[in-house]
Every structure is written in C-alpha cells, then in structure tokens.
Amino acid sequence: MGDDAVDALIDAIRAGRPVLLPTDTVYGLVTSADREDYATRVYRLKGRPETQPSALLAADLDTLFECLPELRGRSEAIVRELLPGPYTLVLPNPARRYRWLTGNRGESIGVRVPELLPAAQKVLAAVGCVMATSANEPGGPNPASLDDVPERIRSAVAAELDLGRLPGTPSTVIDFSRAEPYVIRDGAAPAADAIERVRAALPG
Q1: CB of 32 within 8 A of CB of 88?
Q2: pTM of the full structure
Q3: What mean pLDDT is predicted for residues 38-47?
Q4: In the predicted model, is pLDDT for residue 204 greater than 80?
Q5: Domain extents for the chain?
Q6: What is 3-201's CATH number?
C-alpha cells in the first residue's frame, strides 16, 4: 500500500471526514474523535442512532491514556492486561469525555487499541484517537474486505485503505464499568478468557 493512500486517510481524518480503515478484526468506518459534528457525519452515513455508543480507537496505549487521562487505577490495569488486542473495553468515564461517542451512557466509554498492520498503524499514529464503528449496515454482515462494505457507504467516504481480507469477526465487547464484568458481545477472542486474565491481574 503506497504512501499516497495513507496520506489521503490521514488528511481526511484530520478534516473530520469519514474513511474506511482496516483494523485487526473488520473494516471500520472511522473519523476524528475531536468534534461532535464529525461523529454525526459517521452516524448519519451508517444510519446508526446517536444514542448507541461508538468506540474510541487509538494506535497505542500512550495515545489512549492521553485522550482519556482518567483511565488510571483499576481501568488502567484492565487496559494494560488486554490491549492491544481484539477487544472493546467499556470503562468508567468520570469526566464524560467524548460525549458524542458515548450514546445514552455518558458515564462510560468503549475503548480499543487494535493490533494493526503497519499501514493502518501509521494512519492512527498520525491522527491520535478516532471514532470507530464497523463499516456495515446496522445489524448487517461484518465487512472482512472492502468489497463487503455496502456501496452506499463506500461511495460516500473520503478515502479508504485496502489491506486485503481481514478475519471478519468483530471485537469482543466487555463492560468493565461496574463491579462485575458484563459481556456485551463475544467476538474475536473469548470473553471468558479476558475476564479471567483481568481477575488475575487485579489486586485482591
């Protein structure tokens, strides 16, 4: 994949325009997380209600902690145990940051640090934290390739990065925002294994 395609994604994300970015699981519909109007474009393009949360995705742990400095203590330990990896972790959001990504649950936020291929990693490293949701129709099949992305979505994005076929199973989503973890979606990695790892890593 040439630098031109990578640069096009970086420029589009910085401008708050939707792009198609491969993760470690499926192709995502992505834009800058910095502004509500950017997020609204993605919600409208996908046809997803803004009351439903979307994930905050970062290239690495340091960037994630810069975007969400309140992820300390228990939340930090959970993040460091499971990420990078094919998980979306729902964690407390006491400062109610990125309220345009949290839907009707402003007190918590979903975060991801995927294991990316180099070209996708370069994009994220350049732009910081982004909003990400799978590039499919709501409830539709998960896109393992760009050809799986609905044409109405693919034709409307500002740029795309084609890294071939991905595994096609979405991230495992686990809510750690309460005392007991809750599995929202069992996906690319077994949720039970992740919960056991966290329990072993946390003191007490």
Answers
A1: no
A2: 0.95
A3: 97
A4: no
A5: 3-201
A6: 3.90.870.10
